[in-house]
Amino acid sequence: MRGLASGSDAATPRDEAIRLLARREYSRAELERRLAAKGHAAESVAEALDDLTEQGLQSDARFAEIFLRSRIARGQGPLKIRAELGERGIDRELIHWAFEEAKGAAGTDWFSLACETLAKRFDGPGATPRERARRERFLAGRGFDFEQTLHALSHAWDDR
Predict the structure, then answer these.
(1) Could you tell me if 40 and 1 are in contact, meaning their C-beta atoms sit under 8 angstroms apart?
(2) Residue 160 lies in a domain
(3) Where does the protein end up (predicted)?
(4) Cα(71)–Cα(44) distance, integer angstroms
(5) What is the number of helices (H) and of strands (E) in the chain?
(6) What is the pLDDT of residues 85-135, one digit of tens each?
(7) DSSP-based three-state secondary structure for 80
(8) Residue 135 forms part of a structural domain
């Protein structure tokens, strides 16, 4: 196994994790999967990640906050963001905390975001039921709930 090799050319789990974290934030679960895929022993990976967490170099809270902000900037809704954070190993309490932080700090308004996202993609609400259904599917695919979608369909083009 690579993590157990004694040669100077073999990267330790800590070295590999730091190399990954230098590019972008990762959740602990993502780092565990990546390091395990490189052949590092689970015990050495856990130990290295514990050390990085203690030193503040890896934080699931920081990852969740940055991830949430980036997805909001892309025009994604809360349902999709919550699901993606869960897939990346972030627990429900931390996801809830990140959403509360976003609501407080940035004043995230999901209804307005749904309107902006829809107005960027489509010129109007659509003349036929088929066109309106297409807009609904678009917003649902972006992770907006039914109420946010209805609001956006009614108000996305109010300022135009």
Answers:
(1) yes
(2) no
(3) Cytoplasm
(4) 32
(5) 9, 0
(6) 999 999 999 999 999 988 776 678 899 999 999 999 999 888 899 999 999
(7) helix
(8) yes
Nearest 5°: the CA angle 101, 32, 82 is 30
* Largest distance between two CA atoms of the chain: 69
Residue 115 lies in a domain: yes
Give me the count of residues in the chain: 160
Structural domain boundaries enclosing 12: 2-54
Find the mean pLDDT for residues 11-15: 91
Q: Are residues 77 and 38 in the same domain?
A: no
- Number of alpha carbons in the 13 Å side-chain half-sphere of residue 98: 25
Are 75 and 117 a contacting pair, CB within 8 Å? Answer: yes
Which helix (H) or strand (E) element contains residue 67? helix 60-73
Query: Would you give the distance in Å from CA 48 to the centre of its chain?
Result: 24
Q: pTM for the full model?
A: 0.84
